[in-house]
Structure formats: C-alpha cells, structure tokens
Write a structure and sequence with these properties.
With 331 residues, this protein is an alpha+beta fold. Helices cover 40% and strands 20% of the residues. The protein has 13 helices and eleven strands. Strands 1, 2, 3, 4, 5, 6, 7, 8, 9, 10 and 11 form an eleven-stranded antiparallel sheet that branches.
Length: 331
C-alpha cells in the first residue's frame, strides 16, 4: 500500500467530519486500487471509519467489482466475507461467482427446515387465506419463485433494493419488483414488497381475491398517521377504511365491527355506556392491526403460531431476474 493511500485510509476514522469527507473524496478519485485497503475497515460496522469506507466503495461503484472478486478468489481470507458483502451491495447476485451463488443456495437449503421466522413487519402487507403458493404466483403473474428463509425474503422485498426501472418496448420505463410470500401461518400466507405494495396494493388485493377467493390489505404509516385496511372477495371490494380516503369507508361493517359499535339502545347517561368506545367505533374499526387480529393474523404474533412450509421470493418481470437487485441479504 502506498503511503498516500495508507494516510487517506487512516483519515477515514478521523474525529473531524470534514477530514473524513476529504479523505473519502480522495480515495474515491483513486478508484479500484484502493478497494482492498478499504475492506479491513468494514469489520468495524457502524463506526465512522467503517461507514466512510463503505461509502467510498459505493462511490467507486462498478470499478470496485473486479478487485472485490480478486479478494474473494485469492484472499486474504480475513477479508473474503467483507468482499462478498460488498459484491452483493454493489452488484447484486449477478456480481457473485458461480461458486458463491451455489454456496448461498446451499446455506438457504440447510436453514429452511428449522428456521424461526420471528415477528414480521407490520407497516404494509397483504394476507391471503387458504391459498397455495402457486395460486398467489399465478394471480400476480410472478416469475422465478424460489425457496428462501423468511429473513432473506424480507431482506430482499422490504429492506433492500426491491424495485428496478428498465426501458420498455414502447420506449417508456417499466418497473420490476421483488415480492416475498411467507410460510403459511394458521392457514394464512402474507405477501410483502415495499415498493410493490406501495404502488400497486389496490390491484394486488383485487387480483388475489379474484383468484384465491379472498385477500386483505393492511397499512400502518406512523409518519403520516395514516391507516388503511381493505377486504376484497372474489375480485370485489367488500369493506375498507383509509384515513385520508374520500370516502374514508367503503362497504358495510363486518360482524366483528358490529360487535364493537355502540348499542343504540343503551342510554348515554347510564353506567353501561362507554363514551370513549362509542366515539372510537362509531363507524367501524379503524386500526389495521386490530382488524387483522380479528379476521386474519397479525404479523407481530406469527412467531407463536403454527408454521407450515417456507417462504418464496419472486419477481414481477420475467426479463429481470433476482441477480440485478442489489443488496447483501440476510439468510
């Protein structure tokens, strides 16, 4: 390592943010030759030096792939894990060697039988009852469905890059998505895809219910204070609520809602009258997690439910496989 590169790498851990930024810019400008010298800092996850080194590699971009592959192939051994992670972060699965991809697939197969999924995210999801994976794949026209652990599926469809834009035949831009289908929990499978559901949830729930009989969509946006829940049956909207919808409610209250709505025969001045509950449930149930606990399954409690099978990761575009999506996935 030249003294210039060594000095710049040391400055990535400097106390001064400006000093770190200057070193980062200088290392990025030097390009591929600095890549092996940045990898040791990645072992210190979350430190200023480690973060700055990762940003350098991201800025170097595609030029970093060849030296990262060189480390994977020839070492040093202590840096191989960091090189593998950055290959996935910068280039996705397509950047990995055949041997590395095969190793990942073997690890997934080993972990699948005994995985402990843990709680699932409860910000945006679809729930489908009594549906086979093949039914969901067919309903949403998904492709290249492959077995994955729950951690890997959520990593791919929620936490890392899960949508890509590519030129369509007509000259416009087409968007491709990753979609994760969970194992079955007490007869329900959940569907995740951060960008996919954010942009297509109404179509998704309609298509799933048309093919599978019933589908629910739930969304909790803590930042905007927005709640959404939607029940579709046989391709038709049955009942739904949207905080900022116009109208807020569609359909007639479901049975579980009627049980919570105020009894019109109870005197508001009597001891049996609960003014707070009457106001909260006057038109129905608003909270998506409360709805899910009443008519499907809550993602935050699946850890204690019976699990059947494993999860599946798929893509929406047959011309865009899994390998183009960037991100080092959990397994």
């Amino acid at each position: 390592m030249s003294e210039e590169i060594a000095a710049l790498v040391r400055r990535l851990a400097a106390e001064s943010r400006d000093d770190r930024a200057a070193a980062q810019d200088a290392l990025t400008a030097l390009g591929a030759p600095v890549v092996p010298h940045l990898l040791p800092l990645l072992k210190n996850d979350g430190t200023p030096g480690g973060t700055a080194a990762e940003l350098c590699l991201e800025d170097i971009g595609a030029a970093a792939l060849a030296p990262l592959r060189e480390v994977r192939a020839h070492g040093p051994g202590a840096l191989r894990a960091a090189a593998l992670r950055m290959l996935a972060e910068l280039g996705g699965g397509d950047a990995l060697s055949d041997a590395d991809r095969a190793a990942v697939e073997r690890l997934v197969r080993i972990k699948l039988p005994d995985e402990q999924p843990g709680d699932l995210p409860a910000d945006r999801w679809v729930a489908v009852p009594k549906a086979e994976v093949a039914d969901i794949v067919r309903a949403l026209d998904l492709h290249d469905a492959r077995p994955v652990t729950t951690a890997m599926g959520l990593s791919a469809a929620v936490h890392h890059e899960n949508s890509l834009s590519r030129p369509a035949d007509d000259g416009s831009d087409a968007t491709s998505y990753r979609v994760f289908i969970t194992p079955e929990f007490e007869g329900w499978r959940l569907v995740y895809g951060a960008d996919y559901l954010n942009e297509n949830w109404a179509e998704v729930v309609t298509r799933l219910s048309a093919h599978c009989g019933e589908a629910h969509f739930y969304a909790v946006d803590e930042y905007d204070g927005a709640w959404v829940w939607w029940v579709s049956e046989n391709g038709q909207d049955r009942r739904g609520y949207r905080t900022y919808g116009d109208p807020q409610w569609i359909g007639e209250p479901m049975e579980f809602e009627r049980d919570l709505m105020p009894d019109e025969d109870v005197d508001p001045d009597s001891e049996d009258y609960d003014a707070e509950a009457a106001e909260e449930y006057a038109e129905g149930v608003r909270d998506p997690e409360e709805v899910a606990s009443s008519i499907s399954v809550q993602p935050t409690v699946v850890e204690v439910l019976d699990r059947v099978g494993h999860g599946w990761l798929a893509v929406t575009d047959p011309e865009v496989g899994h390998g183009r999506f960037r991100g080092a996935l959990d397994i």
